[in-house]
From TrEMBL:
F-box domain span: 17-65
One Pfam family linked to the record: F-box
Entry superkingdom: Eukaryota
Protein's name in the database: F-box domain-containing protein
Amino acid sequence: MNKRYLNIRINAWDINHPNIIDLPNEILLIIFNKLNTVDLLYSLVDINGRFEGLVFDLLLHIRNLDTTCLVMKSYYDRTFPIDNHVLNRICEKILPRIHSKANKLTVEQNSMEYILRTVNYPQLHSLSLVNFQEEILF
């Protein structure tokens, strides 16, 4: 196989198999709207400047920050706290950029303290506590 033939095959493959980066912003926004906010933030912030800009444009309209999606659910209906690495990244890189917009915050027991101590929430009007053990609440 000569080099010219190989280059033609690679270029033809790229045309027939577009990458997500090749999609127009309008299509990306539709996709992003279908995804969980925290997953979207964790996955796309600091990865690609274009994606990051689109994600933060979406966040201008998001007032409810639900961090309970940081809990992984197993097939046996048990919940497990998310990995500390993921929680650290969200608290250090993302919350400082979006905290001033949140009117409602939903937290679970294992991440509540870290999420609430990381930043102030000046617009916060509602705090929901999910999956707390009874002795913690009373």
